Amino acid sequence: MIDIKNVSVDFRQQKKQFTALRNVSLSIAEGEFICLLGASGCGKTTLLNAIAGFEKISSGSIKIAGEEVRKPDSHNTFLFQNYGLLPWRTVQHNVELGLENNIRNREERRKIAYKYLRLVGLEEFKDRHPAQLSGGMQQRVAIARALAVNPKILYMDEPLGALDVITRANLQDEIIRIWREFRKTIIFVTHDIEEAVYLADRVVIMAPNPGRIKAVLPINLGRGRDRTSAEFQQLRDKVYEIFEMKNFGEAEYYL
């Protein structure tokens, strides 16, 4: 579904050129859950933005369903860490926001929004405003809003990074439950190794200076993953081991 070939992204900083990404290649299948994993500054958010059409690439190509990515596509949705909710709108009206350009009938928008609020367990809070909700509940609203427009691809940029450990774990389970039901293609940026191993079909491990792919690791654990199992811990340790590697080839390798 998504084909990334030899993508580089260069920026100008203080009259000097800075390479954020160099020669990144990756293919992502429809319905796959991919985690882009790496430390700050490794280019994972730049790569996500480039795939989504928000960042112009300097060389290479990115194609989605065979079409070159040149700008953001309204059929795909971006989910941010800071939720992006409008404080003056109710929960219901925040979820309806993405529907307003395409669905003029207010009752139809209301029904769709309510359906997805029920999906994330917040239908009883539909008339509240974001400030009246916890951080975890606000992110659930953001997820409902993202799903309401029926996107083909969900881009998630560290959406759980600001949450406490318990809320974060609960929302990880919620995201997996929704993904299993709808099978959307998800590209999820994180710097948390355990989160990546828990969520992903494959973990794309990135290295900095310049940003590039260090390894692509399949997570062959099935679903309903147990963080305390020996298999989970072995994979987590394998990812950490790759992180610590200092010497590796220019081209990414696949495990």
What does this structure look like?
Strand 9 (202-207) and strand 10 form a beta hairpin. With 255 residues, this protein is an alpha/beta fold. The protein is 33% helix and 26% strand. The longest helix is centred in the C-terminal third of the chain and has 18 residues, at 165-182. The protein is globular. The strands form two sheets. The protein has a seven-stranded mixed β-sheet, sandwiched between helices. Strands 2-1-4-5 form a four-stranded antiparallel β-sheet, covered by helices on one side. The mean pLDDT is 90. The protein contains seven helices and eleven strands. The chain starts with a strand and ends with a strand.
Low-confidence stretches: none
In which range does the helix fraction lie?
25-40%
Radius of gyration: 19 Å
Apparent shape: globular
Query: N-to-C SSE series?
Result: EEEHEEEHHHEHEHEEHE
Helical segment count: 7
**How is the largest sheet built, in terms of strand order?**
6-7-8-3-9-10-11
Average pLDDT number: 90
Distance between the termini: 21 Å
The number of strands is 11
Q: What class do helices, strands and sheet pairing give?
A: alpha/beta
Strand content: 25-35%
- Major sheet: 7 strands, mixed
